[in-house]
């Protein structure tokens, strides 16, 4: 980090933001975070400043059945806001991730639209500059045509690590910008006019979730609980397992308010405590409920929402490791829990959280471990529960052969195997699957050869295989 004299670059950033035609609040918000970087602030949240949240201090969704009728009456006053700005670059995608075929020939977006229509709730999409046009084109092809409300996420200029000046990349100027994280949703709602549009329609309750998490639904009992108690903000959290050590966790500040701490906000020498699932036992599912009247009141009072800063070190071109090193300023929408007096959290089952971040996750969702209902709900196959199998499954696919979507599809071109009875699957090396393959229990498949191995049609695999 540099000394405060490096604020000399700030006018260059402001000029760049203004030339992009972004609202003044974007320049003000970026300036707020940039000055923190220049003066050496890291955005870290230390263990001695927070304390864990005990399970008996927050409510569980298991106890909310009596709120279902209240929730159904509130549906006309509710909106599902889906974060639709991602490109899925970690999976090798070049377009909107929500348009990826995920289940039964349907994309994330198609399933989300169906869920909203069947529930009779409004749907709004927060698109990025990279996904907006493609998303609108896809929506226009739906039958019957649907027109969800849409608004645009803002963006911040990338900061060169060397000198803290604006990043410049003439061969692709778009790479000079980064999405400011999903914490931007509140400001984008306000500056786009979408917040007032929703309030004018009598919509008060918003459920915000990621497009790649089809377990996120506006269930009536959760909406009813949120509406009846008139909470300003509610975060869905799930109980951590040993595979959840990286996700942001719920904690309580010494002032009594709840807060979210992401892994990037934890000092390196405290990571062991961060990963202690008995100490910090709840992680943020990124399913958020917010009362839009409270949000408007906060925005009009503060003029902007300043969330805890996340500094994300990257290369300017994410596909070019030799490109200049940059900082991306980001924020997490769950961090807003600390801004609202009376904000709460709710313990939810894992069935509301199965995001598709990598091809490993896509294999699970495409398999028979999940079923897609007529209403568009993605649910765990009851057969798995009846056999006493856990809801979660561990998949480890060799990234060299399955890490990108084209490689993945080529190796499952006849269909993905049955995983309803599988608990752990590890594939090492190049392996292609023919149709109607079933995998049971804990299985490791290893191909150490330079030629592709093939799992034959109709195979039932319940032991390790070494080619």
Describe this entry's structure for a reader.
The chain has two domains: 4-352, Spore Coat Polysaccharide Biosynthesis Protein SpsA, Chain A; 359-466, UDP N-Acetylglucosamine Acyltransferase, domain 1 (3 Solenoid). The N and C termini lie far apart (51 Å). The strands form eight sheets. Strands 2-18-12-15-11-3-6-7 form an eight-stranded mixed β-sheet, sandwiched between helices. Strand 13 (249-253) and strand 14 (258-261) form a beta hairpin. The chain is an alpha/beta fold and 467 residues long. 25% of the residues lie in helices and 26% in strands. It has 14 helices and 27 strands. The model has no long low-confidence stretch (mean pLDDT 91).
Topology:
Elements: H1 10-19, H2 24-38, E1 50-51, E2 59-60, H3 68-74, E3 78-84, E4 101-103, E5 106-107, H4 108-119, E6 122-127, H5 132-140, E7 149-152, E8 156-157, E9 159-160, E10 177-178, H6 185-191, H7 194-200, E11 205-210, H8 220-228, E12 233-239, E13 249-253, E14 258-261, H9 271-274, E15 282-291, H10 292-302, E16 310-315, E17 325-330, E18 344-347, H11 359-366, E19 370-372, E20 378-380, H12 382-386, E21 394-397, H13 399-402, H14 405-411, E22 418-428, E23 431-433, E24 438-446, E25 453-455, E26 460-461, E27 465-466
Parallel strand pairs: 2-18, 3-6, 3-11, 6-7, 12-18, 21-22, 22-24, 23-25, 24-26, 24-27
Antiparallel strand pairs: 1-13, 4-5, 8-10, 9-17, 11-15, 12-15, 13-14, 16-17, 19-20
Helix pairs in contact: 1-2, 3-8
């Amino acid at each position: 980090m540099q000394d405060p004299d490096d604020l000399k670059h700030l006018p260059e950033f402001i000029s760049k933001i203004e030339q992009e035609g972004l609202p003044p609040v974007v320049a003000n918000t970026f300036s707020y975070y940039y000055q923190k970087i220049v003066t050496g602030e890291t955005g870290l949240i230390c263990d001695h400043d927070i304390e864990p949240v005990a399970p008996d201090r927050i409510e569980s969704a298991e106890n909310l059945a009596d709120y279902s009728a209240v929730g159904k009456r509130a549906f006309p006053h509710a909106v599902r806001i889906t974060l639709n700005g991602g490109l899925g670059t970690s999976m090798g995608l070049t377009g909107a991730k929500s348009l990826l075929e995920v289940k039964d020939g349907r994309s994330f977006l198609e399933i989300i639209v169906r869920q909203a229509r069947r529930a009779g709730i409004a749907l709004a999409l927060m698109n990025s500059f990279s996904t907006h046009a493609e998303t609108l084109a896809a929506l226009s092809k739906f039958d019957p045509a649907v027109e969800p409300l849409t608004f645009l996420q803002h963006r911040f200029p990338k900061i060169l690590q060397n000198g803290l000046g604006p990043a410049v990349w003439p061969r692709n100027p778009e790479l000079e910008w980064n999405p400011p994280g999903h914490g931007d949703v509140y400001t984008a709602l306000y500056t786009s006019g979408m917040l007032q549009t929703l309030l004018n329609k009598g919509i008060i309750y918003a459920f915000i979730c990621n497009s790649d998490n089809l377990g996120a639904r506006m269930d009536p009992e959760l909406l009813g609980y949120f509406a009846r108690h008139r909470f300003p903000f509610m975060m869905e959290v799930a109980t951590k397992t040993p595979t959840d050590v990286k996700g942001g966790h719920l904690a309580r500040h010494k002032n009594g308010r709840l807060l979210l701490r992401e892994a990037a906000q934890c000092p390196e020498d405290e990571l062991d405590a961060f990963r202690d699932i008995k100490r910090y036992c709840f992680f943020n599912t990124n399913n958020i409920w917010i009362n839009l009247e409270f949000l408007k009141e906060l925005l009009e009072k503060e003029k902007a929402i300043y969330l805890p800063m996340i500094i994300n070190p990257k290369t300017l071109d994410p596909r070019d490791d030799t490109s200049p090193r940059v900082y991306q300023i980001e924020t997490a929408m769950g961090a807003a829990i600390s801004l609202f007096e009376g904000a709460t959290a709710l313990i939810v089952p894992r069935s509301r959280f199965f995001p598709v971040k990598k091809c490993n996750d896509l294999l699970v969702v495409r398999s028979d471990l999940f079923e897609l209902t007529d209403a568009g709900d993605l649910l765990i196959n009851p057969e798995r529960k009846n056999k006493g199998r856990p809801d979660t499954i561990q998949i480890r696919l060799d990234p060299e052969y399955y890490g990108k979507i084209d490689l993945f599809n080529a190796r499952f071109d006849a269909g993905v195997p049955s995983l309803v009875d599988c608990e752990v699957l590890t594939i090492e090396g190049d392996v292609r699957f023919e149709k109607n393959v079933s995998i049971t229990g804990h299985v490791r498949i290893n191909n150490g050869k330079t030629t592709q191995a093939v799992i034959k049609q109709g195979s039932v695999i319940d032991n390790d295989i070494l080619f």
